[in-house]
Amino acid sequence: MKTNNCDINTKNHPTSGTNAAEDYFRAAISELDFFTFITNLVIRSDYVSYIAKNALDNTDIPDGFSPIELAKKSPGVLTKNLEIIGNLY
Fold first, then answer.
1. What does the alpha-carbon distance between residue 11 and residue 22 come to, in Å, rounded to a whole number?
2. d(Cα 27, Cα 44) in Å, to the nearest integer?
3. What distance in Å separates the CA atoms of residue 70 and residue 60, rounded to the nearest whole number?
4. 12: alpha, beta or left, given left = phi > 0 and alpha = psi -120 to 50?
5. How high is the pLDDT of residue 36?
6. What is the per-residue pLDDT across 20-65, written as a single tens digit (0 to 9) for each?
7. Quick check: 3 pLDDT over 50?
8. Domain total for the chain?
9. DSSP code per residue over the chain
10. What confidence score (pLDDT) does residue 17 get?
11. Are 26 and 9 in contact (CB under 8 A)?
């Protein structure tokens, strides 16, 4: 069985493995990176909408109010849609 040295930049990963294992871990990490990108984009987009709406309504935004806090307390339309899509799978 042929083995390769892995050069994936993550913690606690094997330093060597079969070609199939290396391909699997690369694909898994790529999928997680893409998922993180999409969720960050959605949460931050809802946050921008929230900030814009409050600016137009001339209401104050609490100091230190983050996109994550908004998603937890009052998720926006995009976050809700992402949750619905996630539940389909």
1. 15
2. 26
3. 14
4. left
5. 93
6. 988 998 899 999 999 999 999 999 999 999 999 999 999 988 888 8
7. no
8. 1
9. --EEE-----SS--SEEEHHHHHHHHHHHHHHHHHHHHHHHHHHHHHHHHHHHHHHTT----TT--HHHHHHHS--HHHHHHHHHHHH-
10. 81
11. no
Residues whose CB falls within 8 Å of the CB of residue 76, separated by 6 or more in sequence, listed in order:
45, 46, 47, 49, 50, 70
What's the length of the chain? Answer: 89
Closest to 50 in 3D by CA, of 24, 80, 77, 17: 77
Q: How far apart are CA 64 and CA 17, in angstroms?
A: 45
Kindly list the distances between the CA atom of residue 65 and the CA atoms of 10, 37, 48, in Å, as whole numbers in the listed order: 30, 21, 12
Indicate whether 89 pLDDT > 80.
Answer: no
Tokens of 84: 């619905």
Record the pTM.
0.70
Structural domain boundaries, residue 75? 3-88
